[in-house]
Amino acid sequence: MLGQIIKFAQDICRLTSCLGQFFVKIKKEGEKGSSIMSVETNFWGIEGAITMLLGSAEQSEFFIAELPNYPLQDNMSRSYLFRKIGGYFMPFFIGIDRIMKEFGRCVPNYRNIDRYLAEYPGMCGNAIQTYLKAIRIEDDAYRLVQEISINPDGSYANAKEFKS
């Protein structure tokens, strides 16, 4: 589950900072943008949260692996591990909180998304495939969509190459 949260956060950062800028961050009043591009506001909180989650996962794995080695309650190493438990798990809670706050300030950039989908209609392949399955076509929906939306070299078909 933690891996999925990290992947989700990484995807949001990529979709925000890619050339298409499919998501934008709503600025707070008086907030400055990036030092290079003042109109762009980066997801620093999410980027930091990813590092926190990765560190928390590593520390938690250590805790989980090490704890069974000290089954006796009067063992000093076990006591030390339990005193450090907050240090192992707190970055996880802080990271999740940061992702939730930052994502709450994230909105789709519909203009860029619409423009990109008009240029590359094959990117809608998943939705087309779902529709074809819903109407119960007899052929393999995945293969049909692949034939019309993917070029022989593996790239997505642009509007001129898309086969209807």
Walkthrough of the structure:
- With 164 residues, the protein is mainly alpha-helical.
- The protein has two domains: 108 residues, Fumarase/aspartase (Central domain) (Fumarase C, Chain A, domain 2), CATH 1.20.200; 45 residues, no CATH class.
- The chain has seven helices and two strands.
- It has a two-stranded antiparallel ribbon.
- The longest helix has 23 residues.
- It is flat and about 70 Å long.
- The relative contact order is 0.12.
- The model has no long low-confidence stretch (mean pLDDT 82).
Q: Mean pLDDT, nearest integer?
A: 82
| Assigned CATH superfamily of the largest domain | Fumarase/aspartase (Central domain)
Q: Please tell me what the overall shape is.
A: flat
CATH third-level topology of the largest domain? Fumarase C, Chain A, domain 2
Domain unit count: 2
Radius of gyration: 23 Å
**N/C terminus separation:** 39 Å
Structural class by secondary-structure content = mainly alpha
Short description:
The protein has seven helices and two strands; from the N terminus they run H-E-H-H-H-E-H-H-H.
Main traits of this protein?
single chain, 164 residues, mainly alpha, Fumarase C, Chain A, domain 2, two-stranded antiparallel ribbon, 59% helix
